[in-house]
Amino acid sequence: MGELLSAMQTYANRKPARFHMPGHKGNLSCANGLPYDLDVTEVYGVDKLRHPTGVLKHLEERLAGAFGSRRAFLSVNGSTGALYAGIYAACRRGDTILVSRNCHLSVWQAAEFMGLQTVTIEPEWWATLGVFGAIPTEAVRFAVKHHPEARLCVLPSPTYEGFVSDTAAIAEILHGAGIPLLLDAAHGREIPPQADMAAQSLHKVFAAMTQTAALHWNSALVTACAAERAARMFTSTSPSYILMTSAENALEALAEDGAALHHLAAFRQAAADWKNLRLVPTDDPYKLLINLSGSALTAAQAEHILREQYNVEAEYCKGRLLLCMVSDWNTAEDFARLKAALAALDAAQAAPPGPPLHPPPRPEQRIPIAEAVRIESEEIPLQEAEGRVAWEYLYAYPPGVPLCFPGCRIAAGHIAYLDRETVRVAAGF
Fold first, then answer.
1. Among 349, 377, 283, 278, which residue's Cα sits nearest to residue 320?
2. How far apart (Å, rounded) are the C-alpha atoms in residues 53 and 417?
3. Full-prediction pTM beyond 0.85?
């Protein structure tokens, strides 16, 4: 049993008269099966996340040790909170940062919050699939050359679909210019030591509960003190001990890491015999990215078959792609269902591959984000929005990567990617 869980159970077993938050007081008569008896606040014996000195301090030390970072700070606000913290730790209001275009929404919102100037770096584009890939090293070099004033660079690796950038080469370029690297490693099973900071979602790939994450620190350019202050700042002052205990459970379960690899090997062997579907090679072995373009089925039809006929829920199914995320806690039965479902999809009517797909147009910033959101807005039909200036972030979810930002001109190519009826634009623009 983990140290934090033991401390919480010791407290619950005492059955104290709880005249402290939360309001349910650990009374299981209102719990409906939930572990209310273990849902405590920062009481004696279970430590305090704001200033950890006991079990939470040990948990953060174990997190750092498990992933090779010098320090790790728990986040119960997901990687969103960790990314906010990393940006805040490295930057001052109004600074310039380099941001890969396929960064998550939270990165751009953090830039809005701090009034930062963003310089966009273009990732690779997979025209056959319609997704962004890794970040070209030369694109980073170009951005650094033309913006030596940049205070930070933020990149996703691995990406949502499982593509990994050459972090070591990118960090060497950045560090030569005195620019730290913040990695959005929300989907990462490993933390590259070259990254100054990295946000990692413990719930996305490990056995932690949703909303549980960590900010890892390894930097000579950003102080540990700044990183810790920011990490505590961008998390709740009433952190969930159940979520933090699930992070401890994830560490306890790391010994199981790799348990799914033999299932994945068998799956890939079966996929080699597909006729119409194609398994896309990715850098992350736990991501199954399937190209549907050889099938006459639409993404919606494929998703319906998976769900209704085989009781399989994929991460997403849209456009030409089906994405399945695997962890070491998927069972043999899970894989059997998935193989049967995809064999059925593969047996459906074939179709010729479609034409190359173009990336969404590069955002054309007319007004800085932080200024655009202060302008009065109006709601108009999406199909009438071409040429107008966006007041909101426009993105498809998943993966939550904005196509267009507040203050950007909305292009026809943005509209084509969106599945909605209306959009808010800046009034008068």
1. 278
2. 49
3. yes
